[in-house]
Design goal:
- The protein is 26% helix and 32% strand.
- With 257 residues, it is an alpha+beta fold.
- The strands form five sheets. It has a five-stranded antiparallel β-sheet, covered by helices on one side. The protein has a two-stranded antiparallel sheet with strand order 1-2. A two-stranded antiparallel sheet has the order 3-4.
- A hairpin with a 5-residue loop joins strand 10 and strand 11.
- It is extended.
C-alpha cells in the first residue's frame, strides 16, 4: 500500500511539472508574439525625395515624419531620426510611405561618382518596380538575381521547339553600386482604334560583377526577364534546376514535356 502511495505521489509530481512546463511554454510563445506586434516609431517619407536631394532640404519641406508601425514590419536598418544622415543626400528616389534607412543616403560625391571594385565590371540593367524590390534596393545592397525565360530549342533541320517557361537563380549574390530612375511609355491601341499611353516607372540598377557574371546578366536581360531579390546577412540562397509550370501545378502539367 505504501509503495502504491509513493508511486501515486511521484506520478502526481511528474504530471504537475509537465503541466507547469506546458503553461510556461505557451506563455513564452504569447510573450514573443506580443513583442512582435508591439508598435515602434520609424521615420517614413511623406512625399517624393528625389535623388541628390539633401536631408536638410527634404526635412525643411516636411517630407519626413515619424510613424508607428508593428515591430515585425520594421525594415532592417530603419531610422527613427535624421541625426545619422543629417549631412547626406538621397542616392535614389524615395517614395511616400517608405521607411527611411541609412542605405538610402550618402555623400553628394557618392551620388555623382560610380565606385567600381578593382576586380569587377559595372553592368546596368533596367527593371520595373516589382522586379527590383521597389524602393528598398540602394547602392551597397546585396541582391540575388533570378532569370525568367521562354526558351526555344533550335534543331539541326532549322526548326525550333518551344520549351516550358522557366524561372531560376542566375547569380546568388552581387553588389548594387548604382541606382537611377527612368520611365517607359508603352502605347496600346484599343478596339475602337484610339491609342493610350501609360507611364511605367523603371529603374536602372548598376551592379558589380565578374566577366563571367556580366555575360550571364547581359544574355538573360536580352533574352528574358530579370528579377532582383534583396538579401540580408543571413539570407540563404541555393542554386537549383529552377521552376516550371509542372512545379507550380503538377496536377495540370505533370505529363507535359
Amino acid at each position: 500500500m505504501a509503495r502504491r502511495t509513493i508511486l501515486f505521489c511521484v506520478a502526481f509530481v511528474i504530471a504537475a511539472l509537465g503541466t507547469t512546463m506546458v503553461v510556461l511554454y505557451v506563455q513564452g510563445i504569447d510573450a514573443r508574439a506580443t513583442e512582435g506586434q508591439a508598435l515602434v516609431e520609424v521615420l517614413t517619407a511623406t512625399d517624393v525625395v528625389k535623388a541628390g536631394e539633401s536631408v536638410s532640404d527634404a526635412e525643411a519641406a516636411g517630407k519626413f515624419e515619424k510613424t508607428r508601425v508593428v515591430r515585425d514590419d520594421v525594415v532592417e536598418g530603419a531610422l527613427s531620426s535624421t541625426t545619422s544622415i543629417a549631412d547626406e543626400v538621397a542616392v535614389g528616389t524615395i517614395y511616400p510611405g517608405q521607411q527611411i534607412i541609412g542605405q538610402q543616403f550618402g555623400s553628394a560625391q557618392a551620388v555623382d561618382t560610380l565606385t567600381i571594385p578593382d576586380d569587377k565590371l559595372a553592368v546596368s540593367v533596367e527593371l520595373t518596380d516589382p522586379a527590383r524590390v521597389a524602393g528598398f534596393v540602394y547602392p551597397g545592397s546585396s541582391v540575388a538575381i533570378f532569370a525568367s525565360a521562354d526558351p526555344e530549342l533550335y534543331k539541326a533541320d532549322g526548326t525550333t521547339q518551344k520549351l516550358s517557361p522557366v524561372t531560376r537563380l542566375l547569380l546568388a549574390q552581387v553588389e548594387v553600386i548604382g541606382v537611377g530612375d527612368t520611365s517607359v511609355s508603352p502605347t496600346t491601341t484599343t478596339s475602337k482604334g484610339s491609342k493610350t499611353t501609360e507611364q511605367i516607372p523603371r529603374t536602372i540598377l548598376t551592379i558589380a560583377v565578374t566577366q563571367a557574371q556580366a555575360e550571364k546578366v547581359i544574355y538573360a536581360a536580352r533574352n528574358g526577364d530579370l528579377s532582383f531579390a534583396l538579401r540580408t546577412a543571413k539570407s540563404k540562397v541555393v542554386d537549383g534546376p529552377g521552376v516550371t509550370a509542372r512545379d507550380i501545378m503538377p496536377e495540370v502539367f505533370g505529363g507535359v514535356r
